[in-house]
Amino acid sequence: MFSALEKEKIKSAILTDFILSVEIVIIALGTVIKEPLTTQIIVVSVVALLATVGVYGIVALIVRMDEFGVRLINLNEEDNSISDKIGRFFVNALPVVIKSLSVIGTIALLLVSGGIFVHNVPFLHHVLPNIPSILVEFAIGLLVGFVVFLLIQGVKKMFKK
Length: 161
Hints:
single chain
């Protein structure tokens, strides 16, 4: 039913959506962490539901963008009509959008994870006070991400043998 490339695209999109949804839930929890437990549960549940529906909805639109473009191109028999131009725009834009989202998503992931560490580890909160916090959060996120990457690679090598 699906080609290997389509299956890989779907798998990648689902993983990206999951990570983005978790980031949003963590941010939501961080905003209500000092509230009563009932408030935390309600707020995080509502945000998680909205984030999941929103994120998956947007990704579904992006993944189907090229198919919509092809339908616009095939809408009429005329060559170079406005629907053809718009359709070609959507078809050609999809690879650029996906590559851009991967870069933007990676930067967002590093900033959010770095921010979580900086705001919850007192030592990190006061490190490099003269540098803008967004740069510190990015650097901490990058450093922690690299350490986690190395740990995962080490575990993979240990279990491959």
